[in-house]
Amino acid sequence: FSEMQSHYWWEGKVETATEVPVYLKTHRRNFSDVEKVVKELHSYECPCLVALPIEFGSKTYLNWLDQSSKGE
Fold first, then answer.
1. Strands (E), the chain
2. What CA–CA distance (Å, rounded) separates 37 from 63?
3. Number of CB atoms found within 10 A of residue 45's CB
4. What is 4-68's CATH topology?
5. In the prediction, which pLDDT does 47 show?
6. Stated pTM of the model
7. β-bridge pairing 4-10 and 13-19
8. Domain locations along the chain
9. How far separated are the first and last CA of the chain, in Å rounded?
10. Side-chain half-sphere exposure of 70, counting CA atoms within 13 A
11. What pLDDT does 27 receive?
């Protein structure tokens, strides 16, 4: 994981912090579970947690993602 400098507005002033971005890949049906775990473990009161829709992708990868994120 590579560190990055983050600049954001928090409680009335601009803050700067060194952060490590993490990208998690899962099916949309798992988002609420992922959100719950991240909020429990993250040190920030308001961590950046967003979902990006997949518009296009290789059929092989998308099939794998669907199968591997079912939780079975």
1. 4-10, 13-19
2. 25
3. 8
4. Alpha-Beta Plaits (3.30.70)
5. 93
6. 0.74
7. antiparallel
8. 4-68
9. 28
10. 7
11. 87
